[in-house]
TrEMBL record:
Start and end residues of each OB-fold nucleic acid binding domain: 12-117
Stated family: Belongs to the XseA family.
InterPro entries assigned to the protein according to its UniProt record, in alphabetical order: Exonuc_VII_L (IPR003753), Exonuc_VII_lsu_C (IPR020579), OB-fold_nuc-bd_dom (IPR025824)
Protein name: Exodeoxyribonuclease 7 large subunit
Top-rank lineage group of the source organism: Bacteria
Organism per entry: Parapedobacter defluvii
EC number(s) per entry: 3.1.11.6
Keyword Iron-sulfur tagged: no
Pfam families assigned: Exonuc_VII_L, tRNA_anti_2
Record domain Exonuclease VII large subunit C-terminal: where: 142-433
UniProt KW keywords: Cytoplasm, Exonuclease, Hydrolase, Nuclease
Subcellular location: Cytoplasm
Extent of the signal sequence: none
Amino acid sequence: MPEKLPDKIIFSLGEVAKSIQRTIAERYRQVYWIKAEMNKLNHYTHSGHCYPELVEKKEGKIIAEMRSVLWNGDYQRINQRFIEIIREPLKNGITILFQATISYDPLYGLSLRILDIDPAYSLGELEREKQESLSRLKREGLFYANKRLPFPTVPKRLAILSVETSKGYSDFLKILDGNPWGYRFERNLFPALLQGDKSIPSILNQLVNIAEHIEDYDVVTIIRGGGGDVGLSSYNNYLLASAIAQFPIPVLTGIGHSTNETVAEMVAHQNAITPSELADFLIQRFHQFAVPVAQAQEVIVHKTRQLLLAHRNTLNDCVRYFRLHSIHLLSQQQKALEHQFIRLNMASINRLRQGTQILLHSQKMLQTATTGALKDQQTQLTAMERSVKLLDPQQVLNRGYSITRINGHALKSTEYIKKGDTLETLLASGQVYSTVIHSKTTNDE
């Protein structure tokens, strides 16, 4: 009961809460169909219950938010219908049309108890989101961007987005490694979540990692298998599809389903229904290059053999020709050498004869010239001998001349003597010694 005061009535919090509870129970007695975005499912595995956070957004802003509860039994039934009809489980971020009762609890506040969810409505919303992604990609000119990239002649180096334990990944490698031609593919696994709410950031992050080493790869392959058609709505996401469309090398998808293509598959350079089919595609592209190369190799070998045979025959003909021509040429050269030898022999004899005659003539001329020269020299020697004899000091003395010496030297001038010096005078028949008493030069007065 409220507490009454003279000027006011005071209600307890519990009384207010119970009043709200009664009012809502009386006012909202029926079941209502409500549409909202399930921001978070909040599924608790230990109990199986879900406590979805429901929101309504306008221009990206939340304008209404409310808690709800989905008991385990209802969740299992609804989730199974979602998987069967739209190939997606209940998950975060999808728009739903649900049937619920409205209740208020004094402890837990206002909430909606979800009784049923219409999967057809969510399917329509997912399709609408898919079409919006397609329209935006085409409007921005990105839809065919990856498809326009030139496909490598030999797609040998593969960057693989998958899960190592995935059956699809295992099948993909088995087909690649077991190809009958023994082609070898270089591959590098980039582990990523491939379905569910977290698949989009996981794949985007790995695409960034691959782009940092883009020169190491020829193509990117997105491999998913074993999950059937469930959990593919993330591949309709604009951000993921845009990243694939704008990737700098071809992106190939093999995400293992047979229903309508997702946007990511549409913008990819090549799409295969299964990982095995994608592996076959890569092998065939490899083979398309290898077969012409092998054929060209066979043609080259065949043509080379033909050329070798033709050149061998030509070479044999040339050998025979050169052998015959060489014998003939050698014979001619031998005859020419013999003729030259005879001519050289005769010329040598003639030159020797001429040289002998010249030598004999030169000998005679030399003898004659030598005799004359000797006579002339003899005459000159005789004349010189007479001159020398005439100049002999003894001959001079014999003609009446004398030689005066002082200290053993011939005296030529009075300037070298003084009074009292002893002089030696040589005569033809002896010597005379004298003492200087007085000397006089010819120019003295």
